[in-house]
Design goal:
Layout (H helix, E strand, L loop, with lengths): L1 E5 L9 H9 L14 H15 L3 H8 L8 H8 L4 E9 H10 L4 E9 L5 E5 L5 H11 L3 E6 L5 H6 L2 E5 L3 H6 L4 E3 L2 H15 L1
Parallel strand pairs: 1-2, 1-5, 2-3, 5-6, 6-7
Antiparallel strand pairs: 3-4
Length: 203
């Protein structure tokens, strides 16, 4: 059997924090795992910025409520699930993901959880598991599943390298340059082709 593991932001939906930055005018919130590989450093910085500006979880959820999947993402997922299983492995949070999952017809997602105080301020976060994307692929392997993985950022590299096949999806050029052995998909048709090729090779 076969399973496809996909990153969420930058692959199926726009970057949530970039949208928050655009709505609030806080440029520092534009930074993502494309810019800062260390997720802990990135998130602690975001939480400090939210505290400084008095932004609550609801403020971010209000931005997410206006967001839609990337053009073609829903059709891609619909096509993908006609011939294989698919799971989203994301470093986002369950408090963020629900409205976006609804628009994608409720795919399975493994993500993290925010810690929120009684004033609805984000005070921290709880990882499902450190390097959870890679460990998820390892878990699928332990169940005798073959895996294809795709993402766009530094935090996706370990799962792509652990998988039986994988591609970067519309990544920054520096990540491509630093990882020349990993294929690149520039659109959903190329990604589907890569997935089908890997499935054929694993038969």
């Amino acid at each position: 059997m076969f399973v496809v593991c996909l990153d969420l932001e930058g692959v199926l939906v726009p970057e949530i924090w970039i949208n928050v930055a655009e709505k609030t005018g806080i440029e520092k919130l534009r930074l993502t795992t494309r810019d800062i590989p260390d997720y802990d450093v990135l998130m602690k910085g975001r939480i400090e910025i939210l505290k400084e500006h008095g932004l609550t979880l609801k403020d971010i959820q209000d931005v997410i409520a206006t967001m839609k999947p990337l053009d073609g993402a829903k059709a891609f997922m619909d096509e993908l699930r006609t011939f294989t299983q698919a799971v989203i492995l994301s470093d986002t949070f369950d408090q963020f993901a629900q409205p976006l999952m609804k628009q994608l017809a409720w795919p399975t997602i493994f993500c993290n959880t925010l810690i929120v105080d009684d004033k609805n301020m984000i005070t921290g976060y709880k990882l499902r598991q450190k390097d959870g994307k890679k460990h998820a692929v390892e878990g699928f392997h332990s169940m005798n599943l073959k895996v294809f993985a795709s993402g766009d950022s530094y935090n996706d590299l370990s799962m792509i390298k652990e998988a039986d096949g994988g591609m970067l999806f519309c990544p920054p050029q520096r990540i491509v340059d630093e990882n020349p052995t990993i294929g690149v998909a520039h659109n959903y048709d190329e990604l589907l082709a890569g997935i089908r090729k890997t499935i054929d090779q694993c038969r």
